[in-house]
Amino acid sequence: MRGVLLLTSIALWAPQIWAQSAPAPSASAVIHADRPGATIDRHIYGQFAEHLGRGIYEGVWVGEHSSIPNTRGFRNDVVAALRDLHVPVVRWPGGCFADEYHWRDGIGPRAKRRVTLNTNWGGVPETNEFGTHEFLDFAELIGADAYINGNLGTGSAAEMAEWLQYMTSDRATSLTAERARNGHPGPWKIAYFAVGNEAWGCGGNMTPSHYVDLFRQSATFLKAPEGARPAIIASGGHDDDTSWTEALSSQVPAREIGAISFHYYTIPGDTWKNKGPATGFGEDQWISTFAHTLKMEDFITRNSAVLDRYDPAKKISFAVDEWGTWYDPGAGLEPGFLYQQNTLRDALVAAINLNIFHHHADRVRLAAIAQMVNVLQAMILTKGRQMLLTPTYYTFRMFRAFQDATLLPTYLQTPQYSLDTVSVPAVSISAARTSGGAIIVALVNLDPNQAIALSATIPGANVQRVSGEMLSAPTMDSHNTFEDPYAVYATPFTAASVSGGELSLTLPAKSVVVLTLQ
């Protein structure tokens, strides 16, 4: 049945993509296989799972006694989809939720755990069924590293230190004995541990200088066995504010800080009170979305310049550990649950941001899209027993080969895509070489109305053949529903060719294309 749905969908929209009333505008690129750059750290493909709406409960966790097929309480369909995505790291338990989360509420027999209040997201009861053991079991189940966000806002250095000891210690202590009684005798490996979240806002409304003091105090007591201490992440800034990066990198030695976090959400509108709808939008909101998401390039560049002054050896990572689209809640939906539909527009936003992260691979070595299931720009949506994969999921799956590949610098000449007073580059590109020697190229055409002819030379490589995948759809807001779960789906792309070492293709309107060159 899946194949029938897919073929029907392709038949409906393919002619619209390829029909051209005039010659396509052109772009050109140079892919420098002769100038390999930094490794694209797989952790930039990270996911974010917060206790928010149906992100954890129903989205990931249904419990062992659920009628929904599960393994130890985790949805089998969601686990399989995330494993196929090669998710490298998951950030948990928040977000704003993290700075009101006390880890002891989430250990021990589930029936005896405290029921608390999720004051940030809907004011609903939090059963704490999904706690430390469940999260780390889930991370292992999908093959991901663990990123734990500590509670600085309502917690303490002592609470964070004990939590880290509980998870990582291999010595016989009361904490490790308690861990064993709760079902896990041996220690876990924790890749990242953050000291608070959004200290400038929901994490405490702090100033940068105040947070720096608290960070240094807390990090002093975050101890783990030799070789097992996670990278310690500091809560950094957002949007165009570089003051947090300035304060942290100038006052904290690089040896004490693994990464500085950064948060930026793409909205079509200019205010948070009027962000714009997830579907049913016009071309004005289509282009404004991309104009806003492209600001990520400038934000990373400016923060990297600050870091370069104090950390020229690039020991400190710049971690974009919350990013994605954020729209107005749909009619009839709980605003605090942040559930939104995910369209072709979101898939292109994801591809553009991933291309930007690739270009900054020397400094951006960790990122997490917000969020994994049923929240904001999700990979997966669920409805009871049903599950669907979103357009953003397919972008991430198409980009899998970039994980731990070597960046190849690109030079791009592209036409502009313009509407009224807004203008953006029509094409986005990044390229890399995999460990197996293949060259991968990611391309995005932001123009929803016309295809773009692209040619690229590849000095330093003798390319003989090309294959690829494409993601596009009939309309700007095409999306998958539980009634039609394959309306937007990645398909083979065969319209690229190589001749005399030059790559040529026509990039369909409003599309993401990933090519493999050998």
What does this structure look like?
This protein is 25% helix and 25% strand. With 518 residues, the protein is an alpha/beta fold. The chain has 2 domains: 22-36 and 408-517, Immunoglobulin-like, CATH 2.60.40.1180; 42-403, TIM Barrel, CATH 3.20.20.80. The strands form 7 sheets. Strands 2-5-8-9-10-11-12-13 form an 8-stranded parallel β-barrel, surrounded by 6 helices. Strands 16-20-21-27-23-24 form a 6-stranded antiparallel beta sheet, covered by helices on one side. Strand 18 (416-419) and strand 19 (422-425) form a beta hairpin. It is globular, with a radius of gyration of 23 Å.
- What is the helix fraction of residues, given as a range? 25-40%
> What's the number of extended β-strand segments?
27
* Total number of helices: 11
Low-confidence stretches: 1-21
Question: How many domains make up the 3D coordinates?
Answer: 2
Task: Report the biggest beta sheet as strand number plus sense, adding barrel if it closes.
Answer: 8 strands, parallel, barrel
How much beta, percentage-wise?
Answer: 15-25%
Average predicted confidence as pLDDT: 94
> Which fold name is given in CATH as the topology of the largest domain?
TIM Barrel
What is the CATH level 1 assignment of the largest domain?
Alpha Beta
Radius of gyration: 23 Å
* Major β-sheet strand ordering: 2-5-8-9-10-11-12-13
* Helix-and-strand structural type: alpha/beta
What is the CATH architecture descriptor of the largest domain?
Alpha-Beta Barrel
Instruction: Please identify which CATH superfamily of the largest domain we are dealing with.
Output: Glycosidases
The span between the termini is: 34 Å
The coarse overall form would be globular
